[in-house]
Structure formats: C-alpha cells, structure tokens
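Protein 1 of 2
SEQ + STRUCT:
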Amino acid sequence: CVDACSFGGISIDRDNIDMKSMLECLKVLKNNHKLVIFPEGTRNKVDDNLQPLKSGSAVFAVKSKTPILPMVLLKKARFLRKN
C-alpha cells in the first residue's frame, strides 16, 4: 500500500487535533513550497456544489503570511495526460 507521504502529501487526522501535521504544513510554506489544500476537507466527488468549508486553510495562510490562490478543478484528471 502506498500512502500520501510517498507522493509529497501530508497525512492529516481529521478526527483529532493533529499538531504534527499542522507544523509540517507550516514548514512547507516557510520553505516557499506550494501547499494544496481542499478547503472542504476532502475532494468533492459527488456534484458541482461546494460542501461546507473548513477553516484550516485560512489558518495556514495567516500563520505563514502566505497568499491564498483559489482554484477549481472542473474536469476529472486523466491518467498519464497533462491536466
């Protein structure tokens, strides 16, 4: 089984306060790397409507003084294609 960390992802425990993951995210931003966050807390696979947003992404932006660049994925990514 391959986990998210193998691909540069940071595993988050959404059921508990996860300070280790939060510090990892802040470290990524401090090192001027990009951090992709799904503000709904997960990828929305159901429909085109937004689910309720979580506050985590705003916390990272404020704490690291990093701008937020809103994006939307309109199409499902295709395997082995430029997306």
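Protein 2 of 2
SEQ + STRUCT:
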Amino acid sequence: MRAGGKARALRPPAPAGAEAERGPRALPLPENLVLLGEFGRPHGLAGEIRLKSHTGDPKAIASYGPLTGADGRTYLVRHARQASGGQPDLLVVRVEGVATREAAEALNRLRLYAPRDKLGEPEEDEFFLADLVGLRAEGPDGPLGRVVAVPDYGGGDLLEIALPGRRRTALLPFTRDFVPEVDVAGGRLAIAPPEGWLDEDDDER
C-alpha cells in the first residue's frame, strides 16, 4: 500500500488530449467500459441535472467528450458546477440536447461510461471505482457482504457494503488498515473492520 496506509479507489483524472433499479433501461455494454458517473434528479426547469462524478477532479467528467450511457446512447456533459451541500463529487450539469425538466427526468439513474483505454493504467494500490463495485467483502471468518458503492463525502473513499439480512448498508474507510487486500481478478477483497462494526442491529433502530 502507499505511504500513509491508504489505498485509493481510482476516480479517473482529466484526459490528457449494472443496471439501475429505476430510470432508463440498461443494455449490454462492451466490457472495456469504465463507470465515470451517474445522472440524478433534475435541477430546475431548464434541463439541468444532478450528476455524481467518479473522476479524480469531479468536474473533469465534462472533459471526456461524448460518454456512453447504460442505454447505449452517447451523452455530452457540459457546464459542470458543484452542487450545493458540500459533497465534492455531486455536480449540476447541462447535457447537450437536454433543455427541459422532463428530458432531464428521463435520465435519472442513468450511468455513464468511457472506454478503459482513455483512462490510462492505474498505479499500484489504485483501483478503478467500477472494478471495486460488486466485489465480495471477506472478513477473517469468511464472506460478509458485497461492495455496492464507493462514496466520498469529503473525508476520503469509503466502501459501502451490503450485508445479508440487513436492510441498511455499512460503510468502511477504504484504507490499508481496514482493507488489507484487493483481488479484482478474484472478485474479492479482504476487510478488517473495527471492533463493533456489526454489533448494532440497524433493523431494530
């Protein structure tokens, strides 16, 4: 791992030159695509839309040119700015050809991808966000759950892990101490959660 004991979920930098439960229908996509972001709810009446960005500089998602949507269409993101609320990876953007609230609403929960070869190779202890989502989270005594997201609320990357039998997901810092091993090829990562991490019964709260 890197000095300081941190691994990083690689949010792709600015370029040098699963199907959502709701929203547009997802189609089969080429395997070489990497998830860069996901549209959210409309913002205002003129076609602006919220966008959760997974790039290193969140606004850099507008620099990649046309992106491939989970519906198989291409989308050009423009005029990105940070949304209110202080969450660094949440933006408000305009999309070429989207000029009404109704058109923006139709994109809610649509994921956006770019070809892997446009992103370069990740360095040691860096991992593309899309490669972490879906991995089995295994503790010292065996499987605990599955990674469903890698959010960043301003304090660094977190693994959001869905746990069998629990309605709520659990968050774990994505650091060397808590995630000593990541095996993307094997579809798993080893976690060492802090004592008491699963003691609370969220379903009774």
